[in-house]
Amino acid sequence: MNQLRRDPITGIWTIMLQNGKEMVTFKPDGHRRLRRARPGETCEFCAGHEGETAPEVFAVRPNHSPRNEPGWNVRVVPERVPVLQIHGETNNRGLGIYDMLDGIGAHELVIETAAHGKILAELAENEIADVLTAYRERVLDLKRDARFRYILVYKNVGEGRRGPSLRHSLSHVIATPITPLRVREELTNAQQYFLLKERCIFCDMIRQELEATQRLVAENENFIALCPFASRAPFEIWLLPKRHETFYEWNNELPSLAKLLKLVLLKVRQALGDPNHLMIIHSGPNLLAGRQRGYWKTVERDFHWHLEITPRLRGMADFDIVAGFQVNWIPPERAAEILRQCTI
Amino acid sequence: MNQLRRDPITGIWTIMLQNGKEMVTFKPDGHRRLRRARPGETCEFCAGHEGETAPEVFAVRPNHSPRNEPGWNVRVVPERVPVLQIHGETNNRGLGIYDMLDGIGAHELVIETAAHGKILAELAENEIADVLTAYRERVLDLKRDARFRYILVYKNVGEGRRGPSLRHSLSHVIATPITPLRVREELTNAQQYFLLKERCIFCDMIRQELEATQRLVAENENFIALCPFASRAPFEIWLLPKRHETFYEWNNELPSLAKLLKLVLLKVRQALGDPNHLMIIHSGPNLLAGRQRGYWKTVERDFHWHLEITPRLRGMADFDIVAGFQVNWIPPERAAEILRQCTI
Prior knowledge:
2 copies of one chain form a homodimer. With about 350 residues, chain A is of the alpha+beta class. The first copy, chain A, has a single domain, classed as HIT family, subunit A (2-Layer Sandwich). Chain A is about 25% helix and about 20% strand. Chain A has helices spanning about 125-140, 180-195, 200-210, 255-270, 285-295, 300, 320-325, 330-340, and strands spanning about 5, 15, 60, 75-80, 95, 100, 105-110, 150-155, 170-175, 215-220, 225, 235-240, 275-280, 305-310, 325-330. In chain A, the strands form 3 sheets. In chain A, strands 3-4-7-9-8-13-14-12-11-10 form a 10-stranded antiparallel beta sheet, with helices on both faces. A 3-stranded mixed beta sheet of chain A has the order 1-2-15. A two-stranded antiparallel ribbon of chain A has the order 5-6. In chain A, strand 5 (about 95) and strand 6 (about 100) form a beta hairpin. In chain A, helix 1 packs across helix 4. The radius of gyration of chain A is 20 Å and the shape is globular. At the A-B interface, strand 1, strand 2, strand 6, strand 8 and strand 9 of A face strand 1, strand 2, strand 6, strand 8 and strand 9 of B.
């Protein structure tokens, strides 16, 4: 008998197939694998091509090399064709029953390494920590702008771009003038839970998972990696700080996060062979924007930031598309077991 | 300047690109087109293959031919490998902070025609009306079961199945023991609007769109077809009854709906050349299930059923995936204009 499981944080129900077509994920054609770069391939994100991108807004340059020159580990540049523009006001307005505003925001690319074709899992722990630091610095900076209610940080491995630059490891930092629907749902559910229990729902989840153990993937002193009870997709993995913390950008244990993230990504590679995947940070919204509007007064009490990794395995998407719930053919208990057994 | 537009019914924000890459949709490779059947191709859903499916639960048989024999226009059979099972109880239960229940439900296939490879738009109006009638009959029957809170009716053209049966025109009828998240969002938003205005939000939208006209695609005496103000994808189209009506299955003007639906599908074909697309009916939930639990007391007042068509054009999905809002590179005003100009 298949199970329906509800994620208490997103409110999304997932149909968990008990004897699902597990092998799908292990057949070579079972999922879209990351295409590797051809030898000698370069793109506009490579060292020496700094002039082909917009001028950098942030970079990690160990030897203090000049801006927009080689010598960087991580480099952040504005997206050439942003969907949201940095200049202007949002002009929040109505049209009959409709609401609209101007597309104000920011869209930046985090170039995670100068080495074309190298993927995040292949970087050294300190290099991954540099990437996580770049995220933090950009979020802190963009949150100084009260027009931006939320800052999205994510990477969509193996999708989005075309051509060689698809194979240069990138992340996106996007500032939006509204709170994305799914984030708002998490904030609302976390708040309702606190009102009911006077506890953070994420802290309760971490405690329960540390006791149950069968959905644990890995942990270290500061962070935990688990397959959520109502995983929306096979091998969905969440990384959370063990201590209650609302904002990713306030974390000062990023080297420890880098260590666990690398381990988890290597386990995913070993189990699934570099599948296309999505990685996204769910952090608290922009308090500066919130305060001006009287929002999110209790968010620091309610919400607990986390990082979500979702491999893109071939599956049945229909149901998700039409109904807003998912079908997952590998229960998280089994996925976590497979990942635990991957020895790095 | 791009615009952000909010759909008042779903609550979803869409980024509307003003000078987007419109041509994408018209390049032959601009979107995934429906693959047509090869000559002589057959599948288990063809006339004469009735034995290869589960026994039918409903059929339109003009000449009263016997069940599970040829001679039908429309045939409804249970899905061979359903994700939800018809037998048993849901056993709604908790596990610490989590909620779960058994995968009780129903999953049926509506075989829209005996003619392999023929698509819905190619059927005669009365044949399309037979399909719409099959939807109604199955929904009415499944709603007699109080375990089912919602009945989903949709078709996912060009996706889902593999092999020849991919090219036999099918719809899905799925009964679920919980109300899908997105449906619940629509019900909630419609209710909140009524509480504020004491009017149905859909009725208000229809009135506003009939006045504005620039997002109108087509209309007849009973129904209207429009591109919604905050269209989540290019050429998204909604069909709605002009009169306030909560439940699709209570409609008795299905021949009139069939007429407009065929016209709209032919316009989509002319403008986009048989793109893969999703078609879904959003109807009211199962009152029988609701009454037992004290839900949806005001749904007949708040909600207005509608049929949504969403072509699958190549686009930027990232944003949607990560954030719960969409990027649309063709404003609905332009899409509606293109569709109006398609003369059938």
